[in-house]
Amino acid sequence: MSRGVFVALALAAAVGAALADEMYTTKYDNVDVKEILSNPRLYQSYLKCLLGDGDAACTPEGKELRRVVPDALKTRCSKCNEKQKATVKSVINGLRADHADDWAQLRAKWDPDNQYFDKYQDLLE
User: Keywords assigned by UniProt (predicted)?
Assistant: First the structure.
């Protein structure tokens, strides 16, 4: 392989890696959030994870969610793919409709100064 081709491939790989780092992982995109929201045991597990201060109560999916929530709030989910945005919309609308008290606790935990959620209403409609 010529040196020029090798350099071009290395550059393409570096750019691809950099672009991949700018988006959230798709590893959990197929998690059935409707099942989580409708199953009291699963729902309480995720709620405990998201409201807690440590990772002890969290599944790997919950840990990843806790890791990205602050950044997603600050960046208006700019690193989310379309499926993730649709999932966020579905989950938040489901929480607001069926678990309003839990939604209030989550807002207080993740957005205590009301900097983000009110600004994002257009994304939820």
Answer: Signal
The domain that holds 41 is classified in CATH as 1.10.2080.10
3-state SS, one letter per residue, for the chain:
CCHHHHHHHHHHHHHHHHHHHCCCCCCCCCCCHHHHHHCHHHHHHHHHHHHCCCCCCCCHHHHHHHHHHHHHHHHCCCCCCHHHHHHHHHHHHHHHHHCHHHHHHHHHHHCCCCCCHHHHHHHHC
CB 115 within 8 A of CB 75: no
Q: What angle do CA 27, 75, 77 make, to 5 degrees?
A: 40
Residue pLDDT, tens place only, 38-72? 999 999 999 999 998 777 778 898 899 999 999 99
* Count of beta carbons in the 10 Å neighbourhood of residue 69: 16
Structure tokens at 43: 């729902």
What total number of domains does the chain contain?
A: 1
End-to-end CA separation in angstroms for the chain? 53
